[in-house]
Amino acid sequence: MIKVVLYGPESTGKTTLARQLAAHYNTQWVPEFMRTYLEEKWDLKKELVAKEDLIPIAKGQLKLEKKASQLADNLLICDTNLLELKVYSEYYYNGYCPEEIKTEATKNNYSIYLLTYVDTPWEPDILRDRPNNREEMFRIFEAELKMQGFPFEILKGNKKERFNKAVGIIDQLLKSKSL
């Protein structure tokens, strides 16, 4: 199965693009579990993410991905993955990330990472907190991919340009798989 992960800083259009690509290819997509988890936590307790949330978030993301993988035929679109959680954990907690997350995050289980650039408009919400650090975060995300040696392409431009580039990349993966 070809697994494509949208990866990058907050508010860079990952969810929008994941939905568009899944609709275009008539396949499953995996939403970002962390968003649902943290929105619920905020609604119930008015609390943001804490270290003790990392493992439940990771487990929830993996569970969603496994379920969607069972329903997808030959292509799965992932709104995020554990490598993103690893990056954010290390950034927000001074290098700390649970070993279980590091181990799982650094397995290369994806055909391609589509790294979303920060040239989209910032959309504030309760979970987003770094509108002025987007370029820095992009560089951190890119450096992680390079350090891991994972295949990636950078998506820039407006929604249509990003979508068209992503479709071109995925079409090539599908074509090479069928050969």
TrEMBL record:
Pfam families in UniProt: AAA_28
SUPFAM superfamilies: P-loop containing nucleoside triphosphate hydrolases (SSF52540)
Protein origin, superkingdom: Bacteria
Residue ranges of every copy of the NadR/Ttd14 AAA domain listed in the record: 3-162
Record's keyword terms, sorted: ATP-binding, Nucleotide-binding
Molecular functions per Gene Ontology: ATP binding
PANTHER family: NADR_TTD14 AAA DOMAIN-CONTAINING PROTEIN (PTHR37512:SF1), TRIFUNCTIONAL NAD BIOSYNTHESIS/REGULATOR PROTEIN NADR (PTHR37512)
Protein name, as recorded: ATP-binding protein
Species of provenance: Aequorivita vitellina
